[in-house]
Amino acid sequence: GKGLNVALSCLNYGRCTLSAGVLGAAKIAADQAIKWSRTRYQFKRPLSDFELVKLRIARMSALVYAMDSVLYMTTGLLDRHDPDIMLETALCKVFCSEMGWQVIDDAMQIMGGEGYMTENELERSFRDARIYRIVEGANEVMQSFVFGYGGKQLAERMLAVQEAVGWDREQPLGANLARIVRNGLRPSILRHALPLAMEVYLGKRPPMPEITRVHGSLADRARRFCALVREHSHQFKVQSKRYEEKILDRQAVQARFADNAMWLYAMACAMSRLDSQLRQGEDGAEFERDRQACLHFLDLAELAIRRNFAALSDNADESMLACAQAAIAHNDTLPNSLFYIPERSPVAAGTGRTPDR
Ligand SMILES: Cc1cc2nc3c(=O)[nH]c(=O)nc-3n(C[C@H](O)[C@H](O)[C@H](O)COP(=O)(O)OP(=O)(O)OC[C@H]3O[C@@H](n4cnc5c(N)ncnc54)[C@H](O)[C@@H]3O)c2cc1C
């Protein structure tokens, strides 16, 4: 039947409407906070004069522009009835909920104590924005989904090559050699296996993708974007080879790829929107705000992606796992009766504190 399709398209709509909700709240919060920074004086200067306030104003502006671009592109795919946009809607949901939270947090910081008070709308937006990272698929679940579903095609291709010409520790020497020689001479296998081996063992990157139709002023940005896409694909292959099937249990590694896919998608959406604005000859204060927001976003995204590439080999994963293990072991020594315990816990239902309803 069509039940699964109906269920999956509901998720697509839900993830877009959630993103639209948080984008609206983030836009209002950013405008409110910037206005506040112009009219609130401290040390005889408006808050907007301070560089660390400018940093937040710029980040809010950049992230709002990028969220808007991502949502516009994703809902466009939805309206066009593209056959499979589960990945794009998941990326849109994670991006808008994470960035919306950041924008509203920046706005709260700029408004200071006044932002925290319940009488203005920001406090409500702040509280509401927190749930978007949990509902419609907790963002950690989305990260695993993006890694698994987004990397499926490439992983399957790598697996096919591995099965055809890779060394199988379970097989005797003769059987291994016979299979490798037999398959290694087949052009269809060779076509995939050779470039893959060059990449994984010799670090030789594939040719860079190209963006040929982009406004002249964005040509360098487009080239930098293409270099990041190529590196993303290269690192996926290298790390898949490094961890093999163990990567399925390494959510921290998966999240670095999922986050980079998210940043890359957002960069493409933001660049495409600015390209369109430039071609339409937009001008004025609103356009200049948008242009600078886009350029700043592209810088922020590129830096985040490079940090994730570096963290693939230089990270604190080992101490993180040991630290979590020790904290869990210590927590196991504390009595359940001091804490709230899930009502339907299969191991401890009924042993916890009673919530004060
Ligand atoms: C105000 C509100 C409105 C809601 N409205 C609806 C609604 O209209 N329709 C609906 O269907 N549901 C609704 N929900 C429920 C919502 O969908 C769930 O809260 C959400 O899916 C998360 O599930 P959970 O709360 O059971 O958290 P859990 O599944 O118990 O997860 C708790 C946390 O554990 C972590 N986690 C869980 N799984 C993994 C994993 N695989 N890998 C890594 N980390 C993980 C995440 O950090 C997650 O946030 C609503 C919830 C709230 C609070």
Q: Find the structural class using helix and strand composition.
A: mainly alpha
Instruction: Note the overall shape.
Output: globular
Tally of individual helices: 12
Strand content: under 5%
Based on CA atoms alone, the radius of gyration comes out at 24 Å
**Topology as a string of helices (H) and strands (E):** HEEHHHHHHHHHHH
Per CATH, the class of the largest domain reads Mainly Alpha
CATH architectural designation of the largest domain:
Up-down Bundle
Total strands: 2
What count of structural domains?
Answer: 2
Q: Name the bound molecules.
A: flavin-adenine dinucleotide
Overall mean pLDDT = 93
Q: Give the termini separation.
A: 44 Å
Largest sheet: 2 strands, antiparallel
Q: What share of the residues lie within helices?
A: over 70%
CATH superfamily of the largest domain: Butyryl-CoA Dehydrogenase, subunit A, domain 3
CATH fold assignment of the largest domain: Butyryl-CoA Dehydrogenase, subunit A, domain 3
Order of strands in the sheet with the most strands?
1-2
